[in-house]
Amino acid sequence: MLNALLLVSLAHFAPVAAAPHAAVAAAAQEVDVRASFVELHAKNDEVGCEKLFRAHPGDVLGTIDADLEGSLATWEKSPEKPDEAAIAAQHARALWGAKIASRVSSNPIFLDYTSAFVGWTPEQKKNFRGGQAAHGRSRRSLKAKDYAAAAAAARECIELAAPLGDWWGHAMGLAALGQTLAAEGKHNEALAPLAEAALIYRQLQFSRDELGLQRTLGASLVALGAKQRALAALERALVLSEQLGDAKGVEALKAQLDPLRAELGGKR
Predict the structure, then answer these.
(1) How far apart are CA 257 and CA 229, in angstroms?
(2) Which residue from 113, 155, 164, 165 is spatially nearest to 134, judged by alpha carbons?
(3) pTM for this model (two decimals)
(4) Per-residue buried b or exposed e for 24-45, using 16+ beta carbons within 10 Å of the residue's own CB
(5) Which of 21, 81, 83, 28 is nearest to 54 (CA)?
(6) How many helices (H) and strands (E) in the chain?
(7) Tens of pLDDT along 164-221?
(8) What's the sign of the alpha-carbon dihedral 186, 192, 198, 201?
(9) What phi and psi, each to the nearest 5 degrees, are found at residue 189?
(10) Which residues contact 82 (CB under 8 A, 6 or more apart)?
């Protein structure tokens, strides 16, 4: 049976509902990042795009990926005779944004993901869609508590995404696998996929996704008696909750952290 800490963590698989706690957060919600990005690209305004990406780190990959997914959808409409001009334009804008994103974040993952995507063969494009479908099956199976099916589909997602340079899909598959194993009580097996997925999400600047994984990772570590590492994972989750303005999450995490800190002799 799952312990109380893990149950709380599993409840945070869904995205956190952010409650803005500063004027900057409120202003950020009013900006259409994608539309701004398209306008900046049309003017070749790299400085403006740098400012946009710095102000909205969590929207960077989704903004770039809109062109990548758009190009794939264009190809899928007519694989035998695709609109090459439209696809080339979408790829060029995505690559422009990815170079800026990697420069701003000092992380090559955005350009690596994008450059891989634009070079996929027809078979690789189909594998990408297969990975997406496998992830969907995994999440549905986990919801139904069919852990064997959920883990199998998650592993399929990982196997399809990893060779493609699809870091986003790779992280999704790892997260689904780690969460499934944790829910099943296989905490030791869950550690590697949970930690790796959290690291990738951090690089992709997806704070909400990383938050859920850090909480699940922390819960599994507590269950295994690895309390010092659990403390580190849950303190990282607390930082993310505070940044996202998740007041309920902050309160719950502090309640989980207090006994750990007391036991380990740390500061409250």
Answers:
(1) 12
(2) 155
(3) 0.87
(4) eeeebeeeebeebbeebbeeee
(5) 28
(6) 14, 0
(7) 999 999 999 999 999 999 999 999 999 999 999 999 999 999 999 999 999 999 999 9
(8) negative
(9) -70, -25
(10) 74, 75
